[in-house]
């Protein structure tokens, strides 16, 4: 079969997807209307035109503004459901979705509203779409340790609705150490631990995510190549990197797809996965990431198989489910 058809058809898992980053401009406008929220863009086209980013922060400003239309439980459900339909189209069998409660609780939306809406969509996906979906709660690293602890406290009544915690938002100046105590508490609670590191931040932040936070996977991690000893360690430990190629191009982490280091990371024996990050903002869902990466880096069917297998191996599903999918 031709490679594009193989990439489309092969079963896969997605491990790095911010559900708020799946909010398409059309849905932002529909929810704004439904909730009577005023937007600073006159039309869907004008909003989409604003999706031209120079770095992570220029994206985050628009991403947090987009999330302001989410107020009711149904809004969170409808957003997640729209993504889960795309996931099914892309032959995603399992997805671990990040959500950012502080983006909502800071606007007065109760934690309960967020998690109930998202959980309901995840439960429906399993029965109606055959897509397994879990939630990972992220702490915004530009906010304080105290705010992260408050968020963790608010989440405890819903402990069974999410499988782990992550760390996202602006990396520069917000090192993993800032959340050492929060992550220690989450570890005690038996939560899975992941962290964004080495996207815009230095390789040292990846080392600290491992040593200080005890992160089980590194989100992005592409700057690990700046520290050869770290690359060797990641390969030896089998630590997964959840790489997001289209995101990296849109946020200027690499100039163009030909210049992306994903092929190099694979050659180094790292457990690389491909993910969409914020697909509504970065020009495509998971299969689009696979297609553009394989085209630009001239990857083959063997690489496709490795990446799909890695996605299941690096997931937090049971060993029985892994055996079923791999
Ligand atoms: C994000 Cl690309 C990226 N990096 C860090 N935090 C994020 N939140 C949503 N997308
Ligand atoms: Zn991300």
Automatic annotation (TrEMBL):
<dbReference type="InterPro" id="IPR001365">
    <property type="entry name" value="A_deaminase_dom"/>
</dbReference>
<feature type="binding site">
    <location>
        <position position="16"/>
    </location>
    <ligand>
        <name>Zn(2+)</name>
    </ligand>
</feature>
<keyword id="KW-0378">Hydrolase</keyword>
<dbReference type="GO" id="GO:0009117">
    <property type="term" value="P:nucleotide metabolic process"/>
</dbReference>
<feature type="domain" description="Adenosine deaminase">
    <location>
        <begin position="11"/>
        <end position="326"/>
    </location>
</feature>
<dbReference type="GO" id="GO:0006146">
    <property type="term" value="P:adenine catabolic process"/>
</dbReference>
<dbReference type="Pfam" id="PF00962">
    <property type="entry name" value="A_deaminase"/>
</dbReference>
<feature type="binding site">
    <location>
        <position position="278"/>
    </location>
    <ligand>
        <name>substrate</name>
    </ligand>
</feature>
<dbReference type="GO" id="GO:0008270">
    <property type="term" value="F:zinc ion binding"/>
</dbReference>
<dbReference type="InterPro" id="IPR032466">
    <property type="entry name" value="Metal_Hydrolase"/>
</dbReference>
<feature type="binding site">
    <location>
        <position position="277"/>
    </location>
    <ligand>
        <name>Zn(2+)</name>
    </ligand>
</feature>
<keyword id="KW-0479">Metal-binding</keyword>
<dbReference type="InterPro" id="IPR028892">
    <property type="entry name" value="ADE"/>
</dbReference>
<feature type="active site" description="Proton donor">
    <location>
        <position position="199"/>
    </location>
</feature>
<comment type="similarity">
    <text>Belongs to the metallo-dependent hydrolases superfamily. Adenosine and AMP deaminases family. Adenine deaminase type 2 subfamily.</text>
</comment>
<dbReference type="GO" id="GO:0043103">
    <property type="term" value="P:hypoxanthine salvage"/>
</dbReference>
<dbReference type="InterPro" id="IPR006330">
    <property type="entry name" value="Ado/ade_deaminase"/>
</dbReference>
<keyword id="KW-0862">Zinc</keyword>
<feature type="binding site">
    <location>
        <position position="18"/>
    </location>
    <ligand>
        <name>Zn(2+)</name>
    </ligand>
</feature>
<keyword id="KW-0546">Nucleotide metabolism</keyword>
<feature type="site" description="Important for catalytic activity">
    <location>
        <position position="220"/>
    </location>
</feature>
<protein>
    <recommendedName>
        <fullName>Adenine deaminase</fullName>
        <ecNumber>3.5.4.2</ecNumber>
    </recommendedName>
</protein>
<dbReference type="GO" id="GO:0005829">
    <property type="term" value="C:cytosol"/>
</dbReference>
<feature type="binding site">
    <location>
        <position position="196"/>
    </location>
    <ligand>
        <name>Zn(2+)</name>
    </ligand>
</feature>
<dbReference type="GO" id="GO:0000034">
    <property type="term" value="F:adenine deaminase activity"/>
</dbReference>
<comment type="function">
    <text>Catalyzes the hydrolytic deamination of adenine to hypoxanthine. Plays an important role in the purine salvage pathway and in nitrogen catabolism.</text>
</comment>
């Amino acid at each position: 079969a031709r490679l594009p058809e193989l990439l489309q058809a092969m079963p896969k898992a997605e491990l790095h997807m911010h559900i708020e980053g799946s909010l398409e401009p059309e849905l932002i406008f529909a929810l704004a209307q439904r909730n009577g929220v005023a937007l600073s863009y006159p039309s869907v086209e004008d909003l989409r035109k604003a999706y031209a980013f120079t770095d992570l922060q220029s994206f985050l400003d628009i991403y947090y503004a987009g999330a302001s239309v989410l107020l009711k439980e149904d809004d969170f459900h409808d957003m997640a459901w729209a993504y889960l339909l795309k996931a099914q189209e892309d032959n995603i069998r399992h997805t671990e979705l990040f959500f950012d409660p502080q983006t909502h609780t800071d606007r007065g939306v109760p934690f309960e509203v967020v998690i109930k809406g998202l959980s309901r969509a995840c439960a429906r996906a399993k029965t109606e779409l055959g897509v397994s979906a879990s939630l990972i709660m992220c702490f915004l690293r530009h906010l304080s340790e105290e705010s992260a602890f408050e968020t963790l406290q608010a989440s405890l009544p819903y402990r069974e609705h999410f499988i782990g915690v992550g760390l996202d938002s602006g990396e520069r100046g917000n090192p993993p150490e800032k959340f050492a105590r929060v992550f220690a508490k989450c570890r005690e609670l038996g939560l899975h631990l992941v962290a964004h590191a080495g996207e815009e931040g230095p390789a040292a932040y990846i080392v600290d995510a491992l040593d200080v936070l005890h992160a089980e996977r590194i989100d992005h991690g592409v700057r690990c190549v700046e520290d050869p000893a770290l690359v060797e360690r990641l390969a030896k430990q089998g630590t997964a990197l959840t790489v997001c190629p289209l995101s990296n191009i849109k946020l200027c982490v690499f100039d163009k797809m030909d210049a992306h280091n994903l092929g190099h990371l694979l050659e180094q024996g790292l457990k690389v996965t491909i993910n969409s990050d914020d697909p509504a903002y970065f020009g495509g869902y998971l299969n689009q990431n696979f297609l553009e990466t394989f085209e630009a880096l001239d990857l083959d069917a063997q690489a496709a198989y490795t990446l799909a297998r890695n996605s299941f191996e690096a997931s937090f599903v049971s060993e029985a489910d892994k055996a079923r999918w791999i």
